[in-house]
Queue: 2 jobs
Job 1
Amino acid sequence: MSLGGHLVELRRRLMISAAALLVAMILGFFLSDPVIAFITEPVRKIAEARGDDLVGLTFSSVTSPFDLRIRIAFSLGIFVAAPVWLWQIWAFIMPGLTRKEVKYTIGFVASAVPLFFIGCYVGALVVPHVIELMATFTPEGANNLFEAKQFYDFSLKLMLVVGVSFVLPVFLVALNVAGVMSGRAILKGWRVAILIATVFAALATPAADVVSMLMLAGILVVLFFAAAGLSMLFDRRKNKRQKAEGLLPDVGV
């Protein structure tokens, strides 16, 4: 295909993705009320605990309420339309991939996408605890009036951070497949991985909720060791194949 043909194909894929995103955003706009009710649940709990009405979301401009709903609609649209735009990206790059690269890419996407959504779900469970914990640092006599835009951005970004953290082990496997890191090199970093997982879980969960912290840290550690084990398995298979081809001396792995 010529360069012009590639550009035409890219435009077509982008148009399909944009149309799917627009439809999903319209649907997300009408679903914004349940989302707002969900993310503001910790705010209502803080207000009930203090027994006053000086806790809640604030809108600093006339258009802020509409802007918040558009932000929610866009976020929901990205998630709902994900199967469409992911397929369009895949369909565009697939003709340039070898059969082996296609196999690895399918495996990567099939692993990364579910882990990302699971991570976002875990993040959604963690966000209310973080907000309630941060509110405990409010000085006596002060009020918690959360600016709506910043409140939503904080909640969304924290969910995305947890979602991405669940996908990081898949990137470790991808680096191993690409020959950048060996399985042994990944496994050697287990102490650092456990420390990072524990610190992250401690920051992402309330201080008094030790069970949630251990569960989140445990999930991240298990994912890390699964990535290291899978990478070592790939290395073993690669070494056996190279031995069979006479590219490596016949020594134990």
Job 2
Amino acid sequence: MIASAIRTVETFQVPPRWILVRVGTEDGRVGWGESIVAKRARAVRAAVADIGENLIGADARRIEDAWQRMYRDGFFRGGPILMTAAAGIEQALWDLKARSAGLPVHDFLGGPVRERVRSYAWIAGDDPAGALEHARQRVGQGFSAVKMNATGASDHLDRVTTIDRTVGQVAAVREEFPDLGIALDFHGRVHRDVAKVLLRELEPFRLMWVEEPTVAGNEDVLRELRRWSGSVPIATGERLLSRWQFRSVLEDGAVDIIQPDVSLTGLFELEKIARMAEAYDVAVAPHCPNGPVSLAASLQVAYCCANVVIQEQSGGIHYNQGYAGLPSGELFDYVSDGDLLRTHQGFFVRGEGPGLGVVVDEDAVRAADTAWRMPDPNWRHEDGRLAEW
């Protein structure tokens, strides 16, 4: 038995809605990763167990080989459950490998190209309200960029209501903060006919980007919306899973910014996607309204990829504040050394800590492990039809 052989793969559900993955080796070393898809937490934990069992006894140092096995060896491949399970394990293997060498992960991926990474903070809520007041708070915390949802439930024919409310909130923030970066997340809720008008109405406010501007799965509509968006940059990608899916979006030429999530793609795949996007002169703004390990993994890629322009983070996000009856939680609840995750005047400062750069408090994680459940929102239109969340 080789000392670096994988011995255990475990998952933990901790508040507010995070799924942490622990990989242990025969020689007693430990690495941590993070999976997502909180609404299907039991399925994710089962997938981690299934995939992880196949890796018991494998050399933890052979990360690409492990990823190939997790992705290809089950015959059926892809999908958010299998991909996030594999991503959590893969992050933990990078943490193990780099920690054993006493180096940060970004040193294995070409080394750093920057000293700090700009960040943005969330304002308003899932059905946005109070955006201006919340923007004031975020500016006071040192952030130079914010993001908010454009609207709550949106229907084909609610043009006037949706447009007036959305444009009004953006206008109020822009009027008070002329230099603030403002991103607007359509969240895949807005149908094409409404999106066309909204994009045109929003152009004067100089947005950083409009995100997921069409209903999920309709990425082929992005090229049409590009014609309506004028100078408004279009971003998408948080639900895409691999470089093959991102290749199609990049080749289509309709997107200015891609947003892969390290807890769906995996860490090395995120780096590969960013390098591929660079060839198309497309920026990367990694999606990460997740927990501390996911953010640490995403930052490792940000430090070594020059076209990563800004990093999302979940500090103070509405999902952490008892969303849908879940317990509250914050980024620093489960790390004993989390300096890498602290923003300084709106920037993450590069650290040299080994592995992913954070020290997970295993006792706190085990004590907090609970079978919380994040229910589907079941949003409905006035006539009873299901609405996009």
